[in-house]
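Give me the fold.
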Amino acid sequence: MKVIVGLGNPGAKFENTKHNVGFKVIDQLSERLSIPLNKQKFNGLFGIGNVGEHKICLLKPLTYMNRSGDSVVPLMNYYNVDVEDLLVIYDDLDLVPGKLRLRGKGSAGGHNGMKSIIQHLGTQEFKRVRIGIGRPEVGEAVPDYVLKTFRPDQRPQIDEALQRSTEACEDWVKLPFTQVMNQYNG
């Protein structure tokens, strides 16, 4: 089974914030792949389905961002999922709004959700899709910035990035990740 995790914070208050782009991709995947998020366990909301001969689990941790590993790792352990079958989608301050970067491994880069997952897994060797949200203005605190919605002029780039991220995840179900990286990082 392949597990695709979108990071974010639960609740209507956070629904459209920059920090929740991972949740948005999972929602799009759920709809496109007809895999409803109808199970709540492991501190998360998830659904399991098939895409062709591939079994897929879509997960939205409900632990709040900083404790994402508290949801991801128990689910992986329960279903005996190898770390090579994990893909995590999250926001990245170091990329301009709407830019995608797919990587096969790497550090948390200051992202607390990723720090939690890395700490719980004991490795940085897992796939990720980073979606650029840009940096805050001088003097604006990062926590305030990531918990704001996108400006109207940023929406077209973000909507396209969400769409491309969804497509990249779909492609990963069927193709080697290196091939998907080459296509979407281009």
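The domain at 2-185 is CATH 3.40.50.1470 (Rossmann fold).
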